[in-house]
Amino acid sequence: MSDCVGKGRTQVKRVEDSLKRFLRDYVAGLDAGGGKTTEYFAAFAGLTDDGAKEVIVYLTNDGWCGTGGCTTLMLAPKNHSYRVVSKVMITRPPIRMLATKSHGWHDIAVRVQGGGIQSGYEAKLSFNGKSYPVSPSSPRARLLVGKVAGEVVVPTTAVGNPLY
Length: 164
Description:
Elements: H1 2-29, E1 39-45, E2 54-60, E3 65-66, E4 69-78, E5 81-102, E6 105-114, E7 117-125, E8 142-143, E9 150-154, E10 161-162
Antiparallel strand pairs: 1-2, 1-10, 2-4, 3-4, 4-5, 5-6, 5-9, 6-7, 7-8
């Protein structure tokens, strides 16, 4: 039994290391001031229900945040690494994966508050076949009205991990 647990931990470590390598390369490629204080919270979720686990990454610090929130990346697995499906700016937790889908991808809900929006609301981000909206305030995003079923993937209590 312990051998299975050990193999499971090794696999998890490999996945985490691969994600961290990808994020470091991504940050370095953006020339965002080196990104040395960047922190991230990663949630592995089946956004497409195809058996693969996509990753929702909430980035904080080092230029990733403004008064309206921080940047969230949606990543898909690609050859033992990842590719960016979408970069959504000015998001706040909780971030939820909704039960509804658009073009085969689960809709995402994010909190919108700050940057002049005082009371805040939840916005629904739908996949258009290529990406999610770049911002919850863009015309493609919708105000989420009423109770909509979904799973919290990035809680308000999420603590970022240092990227470096």
